[in-house]
Predict the structure.
Amino acid sequence: MGTSLQRGFGWCCACAALLVACDPTGGGDAGLDASALDVAFEDVSLVDGDVASEDAAPDDGGLDDAGYDADLLPCACEPPPVCYEITSCIPPSSCTIGPVADGTVCPGGMCSVGTCVPAIPGVCGDGVRDLTPAREACDDGNEINTDACDNSCRKIIRQDGAQESIPNDNIVEANVLIFDVNSILRIRGTVGGQVDCYPHVYALNIPDQSRLRVAAIESLSGTETLCDTGTDAPFTITLQNRAGGQPISGGVDGNGCPILTTSNLDAGEYLVTLDASEDRPDASLYWMRFELLPPL
């Protein structure tokens, strides 16, 4: 269970793949950067007909000189690390990998020269959305702070039942939630897979001495269905005052569902972070319930 706002799965989002098919005829590593790394081949089971022996009959025109069927691509490489991608395949010994393009999204930030670095704010208010090296979720010129893009160039969510806006896996691009004390805002989102990675970060302003309750729910289809033992919610919840201070870690309820409940809080902007509690190679839907409560 992590609390860091920059934590995420190492292979999620950028260049993630469980197995990457390689072209066995794709010849050598000519033209690659000298710093490119070699990744060992992974043994794979082949279906009948994928590979023929080297003494195959001369009329097997689909096989190259090494006996590989170029159309069926009978090789697979280990997934490369974050911010790297496979650039060539040299069967049967190795693949060659190199850095992905600078600015590629990675868990908690972006890739820069093969390293995942925390996101930094762009030049907000110039009407141009920055993507690299700095990042912005939006940039409409900051003419109105109450529209869909706030004055920090973050996407605003105020409609109950709305979908998260991605990317929101870092502080800079956190989704801003706007709702009142004694009201509820429910958000649906997806986590996992090759596109939408942890953490998910939501920002909200809390009035002085108000309380916050955040919990996973099963669904919202007209009426709310509570989280139970069958709910898929593979994350933890953490609250952090943006001005600093000790993070508040959530727990789980009697059904094992993630939940966070606070006592009276000082006024300020707070960050709610959903972080990984388990490896999730496939995308899955989740629902979250945010509730602001008056002081006790």
